[in-house]
Amino acid sequence: HNKPVMISFSGNWRYRFLLYGGFQHLYRILIGQKSWFNQLNSTASRDRIVIQSVSALLRVMRFFVLSASALVQSSMVKFAESRLREARGWDNASPFPSPPVLQRQMSSARMADLILDSIQPDVLNQRLVQILDTTSLSVDNMNRFQNQLNQSSISAQHDEKKQNVTQRQEMVLFDEQDRVSIADSSFDILLCYVLHKVETVDSLFSSESSAIWLRILLYCPVSEFGSLCAHFFLQLAMKTPQRVADVRVSSPSVSLPKTDLLSHMLALLWQSIPTGTDSHMIPCTPFFDLLCGLLSLISPDILNRYSTVVEQNVLPALFDRPVHETGYGANDPEDRVMQGYLRIALVLFTRMPAIKNLPIVEKLIKYLFDTCLFAVAEKESDYNLIPKCKKERTRSAVFALLYALCEKNDRNLHYLLNQLAPRVKQYVRQFGYDPMLESKSSTGYVGMKNLGCTCYMNALIQQLFMIPNLRNNILSVEDSDPDRVNSLLYQLQILFSFLALSEKRDFDPSAFCFSYKDYEGNPTNVYVQMDADEFFNMFCDRIEERLKSTPQSGLLSNTFGDR
Question: I want to staple 70 with a disulfide (CB 3.0 to 4.6 A). Which of 80, 87, 368, 471 is the partner?
């Protein structure tokens, strides 16, 4: 819908609801139910009723609070209307009108008195922070949900059990939606009350509350929950120039101003950037969303103080970041902390073009180009180490930073082109070159190039490769033949290694075909079709002969049985 639903006050019941203390009653229910907290963090199906009840209660309160806030603060009108329009779980037949309609039915002063000024905002803020802390799904709870689904999936052998699996999946889905709805409503209510009484902002930054925000931003596995938290603080920073009490933020290497709310939040986040060896595993994207958003909002005079931060903190953190992305597959780990540092650097270099001329920037460009994007493993032990950035989002962040460093800076652009030119000459030999056409299939498997009439060979070798015991034992053999070019065993190991580890689309088996000799000692003629059964028997004889003096001497007979 393009605009909130416009419905008149039939009987003016909303006014009477507020006049007779309806909103205060909702407030007392929210404040008084201390037993909710254990149930809000429970995975038991009986406690989902409590979660859904809290979600519904907060949605109702949010509609009243947003409307009241829009009536008393002109700066909140667009925000309130957009939030009412996007309200979760509220269908298009909502009986609640837009703020302009509500204003015609009730005076602004009366509305503020009945909603915004009739409760204790500090108490409400504290309760909402507790609810958000308890409701944000912990990693343990999310893992418990997933284990329940896995156990049900394993046992789902009949239609009835499959139905139970579906019901469990729906339970987790709806449970997550209810928790996100609670967060959505809570953050809107918090923002309205803090903006109405700015002096209450200090309560959001006590040591206990700050720890809660950081837990949500860094560790909540539901990304939307963390994103709502980041959006709340961005709105707060944009709408609240109020100075806050100076809560000491200790950071031995970074000295930042903390006199206003925005700078205070920046200092709090800066000292909490994850750096541990397992930090790439935490879902910290909302944390960096907020940090980069605040850096985009900060005034130029304060921003200039960050020039030393770039050289002394951000870039060393990028250079020293160990490799955490060990593969390109969908299930391989993604280094969100590396992505975060790249995004921080992007914001700072974009907002402070002068620091693009720092001497260390050339080192940064070479590091991003060579180490992060296009490094090639020269030995097997380097395969999982380089390039450092393998996942699509991480590589996109590197490309964005490289572009920003070269934008309107001839020195950096020429330096990058000098890095790029040799690679272009090495790989691009035809018009319309597309590197994606040479990348591994989305299936995750590497193919074998048909050299002419070698389809029989390719099909058989790939089937043998797909037998884990055979493949692993072949790769573990120490080949004693010094003639690597003519060693069938060694070339088979090369072939299997490529199929297992390569990120290219296919493997060229020319060297393997040359090492496979016929009865007269001639290499395989790739333009002559050979009988697949004959090839298989001869191939097994040759490999079995080479394995006789190794610990894997009985490999083929153990795998296929005696012939």
Answer: 80
